[in-house]
Design a protein that fits this description.
The structure is a homodimer of 193-residue chains. Chain A is of the alpha+beta class. Chain A has 2 domains: 122 residues, Jelly Rolls, CATH 2.60.120.10; 49 residues. In chain A, 49% of the residues lie in helices and 24% in strands. The first copy, chain A, starts with a helix and ends with a helix. At the A-B interface, helix 3 and helix 5 of A face helix 3 and helix 5 of B. The structure holds a DNA duplex (30 and 30 nucleotides). Chains A, B: It holds the Pfam family cNMP_binding. Chains A, B: This is Crp/Fnr family transcriptional regulator.
Chain lengths: 193, 193
DNA sequence: TCAACTTCTTAACAAAAGATAATAAATCAG
DNA sequence: CTGATTTATTATCTTTTGTTAAGAAGTTGA
């Protein structure tokens, strides 16, 4: 269970046993049923979770309308990283799309480890760089590709295509920056049947 | 001159004199005339610059069409940070919008300092977190606001409004995710005169 | 199994945006 | 100063998207 999380960390940094144990002792297990909320608009984020299994969506609510902008899957972190950094009340919500098993720790624990261990300071940098890269590429795609091109690129990426099989299409629409109705029309244009 | 850069660094981290000198000895001065290129599509980014004065735009070219997605101003870093992280040929270009004075250093110098000094490792994390925050907020705005709302938010932010006085409107249009013609129409709708 | 709910598609209409081109305004360089 | 270039606006037309609503298809849970 926690090994799965330790394995994830090695994607960014090698940890000695004592370093790992310094984090491990602060970990707790959690489950969240489908449609449950990890955080809701207005709350202040204090925790980061590791997704052992399941999936979540991140969305913003504007006048009764939900805009899903991000998805989280197993073997990745899930949480309001921006909220943890700024310590401001969150403008977003994170909801389970499937039943989730989680490993939970307070963000403060992580920042404390940043001070105590160079390895975690390195991890913190690698993590932020990793998240930056994802956003930078995504932003460029949003600004340079048309909705139709974005959809084609999305289904052309094997990892993303698998997402479509697990996530309702309406959420993918808003991830791509269009309405569900519009995505349905784009699909009809592309897959004439 | 270099003091201006050192001052910038203190926004992220406090450096001792020896720490600062370890970086300072690798710094070089550069100027770039208006319309000059800091990096062009296809090149591999190896340098980061600090903008002493002037401004630049970052753009992508797609079938003869340029999409400007980011601006750089004095007292900030300018460069292809993603390219430095991935070490892959760049898909973007950075061009001076005004005559620029720069302080230049190789990205390798920075990563070497990450290893040598905890203070720079901390700086690297803070920098990545800072860049992440900017992108995260921007992505959310792109996905949740209409073009008109994005323009209103843009001119409603004093710091951004000042940008409008220095940057041709066509570039701001594409920064906001619309064509120059469309931004002109949005402005007419909003400022009826 | 079956009713309730969710999701996707389709239609019809209005609104907005893209493309192209022409003109006006502003800026720049010799 | 002035011709050349760059930039912004406006018009026209086409395409796309948003909105709303209805119906079909699929899923879920008691």
């Amino acid at each position: 269970m926690v090994d799965q999380f330790r394995q994830f960390l090695t994607r960014f940094v090698d940890l000695t046993d004592p370093e790992w144990q310094a984090l491990e002792k602060h970990l707790t297990s959690k489950t969240m049923p489908k449609k449950g909320f990890l955080i809701q608009q207005g709350q202040t984020a204090t925790e980061i979770n590791f997704l052992l299994s399941g999936s979540c969506r991140l969305f913003y609510e504007r006048d009764g309308n939900e805009k899903t902008t991000y998805f989280f899957f197993e073997n990745n972190l899930v949480g309001d990283y921006l909220g943890c950094l700024t310590n401001q009340p969150s403008t977003l919500s994170i909801q389970a799309l499937e039943d989730c098993k989680l490993i939970c720790f307070r963000y403060e624990v992580l920042t404390a480890l940043y001070q105590q261990f160079p390895a975690y300071q390195l991890f913190g940098r690698k993590l932020a760089e990793y998240l930056f890269m994802g956003l930078d590429i995504r932003l460029a795609e949003l600004l340079t590709l048309s909705p139709e091109e974005r959809y084609l690129k999305f289904i052309g990426t094997p990892a993303k295509r698998k997402i479509m099989e697990r996530i309702p299409q309406q959420y993918i629409a808003s991830y791509l920056g269009v309405t569900p109705v519009s995505l349905s029309r784009i699909r009809r244009r592309i897959h004439p049947s």
